[in-house]
Amino acid sequence: MKFKHMFKRTAVKAGSVNSAGNLFAARQPEVPDGLLKKCNSCKSAVFVEEVKKNYYICPHCRNYFRVHAYRRIEMVADADSFEEWNQGLKTENPLHFKGYEEKLEGLREKTKLDEAVITGKVTIGGTPAVIGVCDGRFLMASMGEVVGEKITRAVERATEEKLPVILFVCSGGARMQEGIVSLMQMAKTSAALKRHSDAGQLYISVLTNPTTGGVTASFAMLGDIILAEPNALIGFAGPRVIEQTIGQKLPQGFQRSEFLLEHGFIDEIVERENLKEELGRILKMHAVDGAVKGKSRIPEKADEETSQYISEEKPGQILSEQCLKNDTEQSVKNDGEQSQSGKTETKGMNQIGPKMSAWEHVQLAREKNRPTGKDYVNLLFTDFVEMHGDRYFRDDPAVIGGIAMFCGQPVTVLVQEKGHGTKANIEHNFGMVSPDGYRKSLRLMKQAEKFGRPVICFVDTPGAFCGLEAEERGQGEAIARNLYELSGLKVPVLSVVIGEGGSGGALAFAVADEVWMMEHSIYSILSPEGFASILWKDSKRAKEAAEVMKLTAGDLKELGIIEQIIREEEPLNRENLPEVFEDLSRKIQHFLEHYETMDETALVKHRYDRFRRM
Ligand SMILES: [Zn+2]
Fold first, then answer.
1. Among 350-354, 383-387, 475-479, where is mean pLDDT lowest?
2. Which CATH architecture has domain 69-287?
3. Interval between CA 514 and ligand 1 midpoint (Å)
4. How far is the CA of 57 from the centre of ligand 1 (A)?
5. What is the domain class of 356-612 according to CATH?
6. Disulfide check for 146: which of 99, 115, 330, 472 has CB 3.0–4.6 Å away?
7. What is the CA(38)–ligand 1 centre distance, in A?
8. Is 515 in contact with 563 (CB distance < 8 Å)?
9. So what's the pLDDT on residue 327?
């Protein structure tokens, strides 16, 4: 044990003299047993009380200590809101495993827990939810029949009472002492979650250290939203088993939360001290009457309800408040300019801006200071919760997606992101989306459909990524799947082309009820360079190609490919971007008002017809 931090609180060093002049030289401060513990990571001595107040995080190295189930509930739930369910269930000891019942009895006494999970109902940030928390002190929170049964009952009751479920997971996996009966708990809990999901309810799993085996392969990985604590070990097979099997050492960070995030399996890593707030925010976004169709989903007391969760003031917030306030005024002022079909729009696209060549449009669309998708998200929306990963292979940084609030209602937002500056360009692969990015977007679109949220996409890509890996993972299939699924998505979909709308890579984000374009964005079958190269075997004739391709917003409006053109400053950059937002925000409001009143069948038919006539 290192003692360097041990006596911090006494503020008296051996050999020092206090104000009264007494010498403390020979005497060690007395520290009662249990007051100090050794951090298993940095080996420092830590004060138990200090650690408790600090979310069970080591003050020296930020190692996360194990949290007992009841403490965990105290940490995330509103005070005194926990109501425990299904206490006192006992296993039948299905294998009649010798000594098992005695072992459980001992653990019950030691931990004051019935079993390895506690379940019940809480409120978090005022929103009710069903909660289950695994406790690693009880046989590594392995899943025997009681654990499976308690989770299943909690989920079933949540389905019945139309409540979201949050499970805090840690586990060594299935419980060996209960053999095949334990294995069946994986299917039982998963089946209960399927019903809960089919009933349109939200499930959030929070993965903590360690989450392994049959629990990872069942309820842990089935969250609509999967959160994880930093550096938690999460995997199916334990690291030791893998090392023995392959005869190799595993790399640093293997199977940790950060590894899973990169590989597309979790949405977000949340620091322990932020978990309550984040859970509250996510719950709130799913509680805003999301499933009601055919009427405005903007809550009457939206100011009150949303402001509570708006953490930092940003332009989008001001706009959001403004759009609530001005909503009715704007509708009146909106003389003759209709969102749908755009037929009665008074300002025709030809009057927008000075006439410029198609090639000039191309150059403006590619301008390196042009705002990217993220800039639009920051300005238009509040409370953005970013979700990561396709749940198959990777989190593609060329796509940023998540849930955000727009004028008091939750929406799913997806952007193709190029990034600003060379470093960010490379990180985001210049907005060239990989199959993993299309699969992430599809996952989030389907999630939006489940919760009745509109989808708003921002298109900005030179094209889908062309590369070896992209082909190996089925780039064509991924794009096709998006077109196919988007055509039938039962929630409103809006796409705004903000920069380059390159080929199928753009279309996979634009099978929408309406497609709008920023005035100097472009949308085309492929780049002018590619077009010239294929048709004329000369990519240098790109300028000439641009003129014949009909890729400007004006051309595409005339062709009936898009509905709206958003006027923009020239050249558009991050500084003057806010000037287009009043217009854009108002148009989005009108879009939502119009399409949210359509029933699902009419909505999908409208989208079908939109492309059918092209
Ligand atoms: Zn430590």
1. 350-354
2. Alpha-Beta Complex (3.90)
3. 54
4. 8
5. alpha beta
6. 115
7. 8
8. yes
9. 45
